[in-house]
Amino acid sequence: MSEIDSLKAQLKSLQDKALGLFAEAADLQALQDLRVNYLGKKGELTSVLKGVGKLPPEERPVIGQFVNATKGVLAEALEKAEQVLAAKASEARIEAERIDVTLAGRKCPQGALHPVQQGLNEMTAIFAQMGFEMAEGPEIEDEFHNFDALNIPQEHPARASHDTFFFNAEGEDEAMLLRTHTSPVQIRAMQACVDAGGEPPLAVVAAGRVYRCDYDVTHSPMFHQVEVFKVDKDVSLANLKGVLQHFLSAYFEKDVPIRLRPHYFPFTEPSAEVDIGCVFCNHKGCRICKGSGWIEVLGSGMIHPNVLKAVGIDSTVYSGFAFGLGVERLVMLKHGIPDLRLFFENDVRFLRRMGA
Ligand code: DAH
User: Fold this and answer.
1) pLDDT band (50, 70, 90) for residue 133
2) How far is the CA of 269 from the centre of ligand 1 (A)?
3) What's the CA-to-centroid distance between 354 and ligand 1, angstroms?
4) Mean predicted confidence (pLDDT) in 25-43
5) Which residue has the least CA distance to atom 5 on ligand 1?
6) In a domain, 270, yes or no
7) Residues 158 and 293 in one domain
8) Are residues 130 and 252 both part of a single domain?
9) Which atom of ligand 1 is nearest to the CA of 181?
10) Of the residues 267, 275, 297, 308, which should be mutated to test ligand 1's pocket, given the most ligand atoms within 8 Å of the CB?
11) Ligand 1 centre from 209 Cα, in Å?
């Protein structure tokens, strides 16, 4: 074989071997090493070129072109292999850095309204829908609003049943008290109307804390009441019953039967306690309703003329109905809660179960 053919054959086999190695290179670093091995100054191609010196001068350009062509082929193959490996490396990195966005997040514990507040909101919302306006009164009351104006004068036996917390405010002669019911808001709302030169109709709902010195399974020294009243011309007991029927069915979310049972309250005449068909046995009679099928839920009546007189409303022109209910009691009945004290112990297990 002539010298030039042998060189050509060497170049060819070098190229084939190099292309094979390029294709097998595992990563960019391996490829870089191969580039140095083949195309570098001390690389294989250079060492083949050393043989060129032995050729006769006229053959040198021929082999020179051949070497350049081989160089070109190798350089191009390296470039391509680099691109493929670079793409693979980038894909691998993307895969490794992948974030699984479908993983469920950690939930923050969420607060909820206290069951008493929830019940209170539900109740006042029903009255608001019926057109009653919200009113508020102070928790620290005087005897006039809590008792006298409600037709409970000093020495009236009804005062004893209220277990009142009395105290003397500093520098004040008048004894103050924690309101024992929300009925004083009736007085304040009617007074505000009269003082502003207004006249009935008045339809008011008031809710809030009340206090009595009493504590057992069904009594707490602080509890909540909702008070509702309406004063207008020709307000009748039938209006009272209609409002009660609507309210109680809306609150218990079913058609509960109701009955008005004659009773006594100083601030209403006539007065009635209101019973609903027992929600535990569906009015059939059970341990909770003591077999009667009825459960007492609130006090009501037609506003006593003396109460209207106390605030300067003409009782010969206007009449009204009123009722007051215990919020905790109704929430207990609706949700079957056995002990009033659960509301005030703040046991999170109870609160969570009642949570919205
Ligand atoms: N204030 C009464 C109480 O706390 C409840 C009540 C009864 C309110 C009859 C009323 C009513 O407005 O008419 O025991």
Assistant:
1) very high
2) 12
3) 28
4) 89
5) 324
6) yes
7) yes
8) yes
9) 4
10) 267
11) 14
d(CA 183, ligand 1 centre) in Å: 6
Residue 289: give its domain's CATH number.
3.30.930.10
Which residue is closest in CA terms to ligand 1's atom 4?
A: 181
Q: Which two tokens stand for residue 66?
A: 């051949």
pLDDT digits (tens, 9 = 90+) for 138-169: 999 999 999 999 999 998 888 887 889 998 87
Does this model's pTM top 0.70? My answer is yes
127-130 long-range Cβ contacts below 8 angstroms, 24+ apart:
127/205, 127/226, 127/228, 127/247, 128/205, 130/203, 130/243, 130/246, 130/247
**Residues 82 and 167 reside in one and the same domain:** no
Ligand 1 surroundings by CB, under 6 angstroms: 181, 183, 227, 265, 268, 299-301, 322-324
Using alpha carbons, select from 127, 237, 130 the residue that is nearest to residue 182: 127
Q: 65-120 pLDDT, tens per residue?
A: 888 888 898 899 899 989 998 998 899 999 999 888 898 888 888 888 999 999 99
Please count the structural domains in the chain.
2
Q: Where does the chain show beta strands of DSSP type E? A: 133-135, 140-142, 166-168, 175-178, 202-211, 222-232, 258-265, 268-277, 294-303, 319-326
Higher pLDDT: 12 or 191? It is 191
Q: Provide the residue type at 78 as one letter.
A: L
Domain containing 295 equals 115-353
Q: Given 64, 96, 128, which residue is the final one in a domain? A: 96
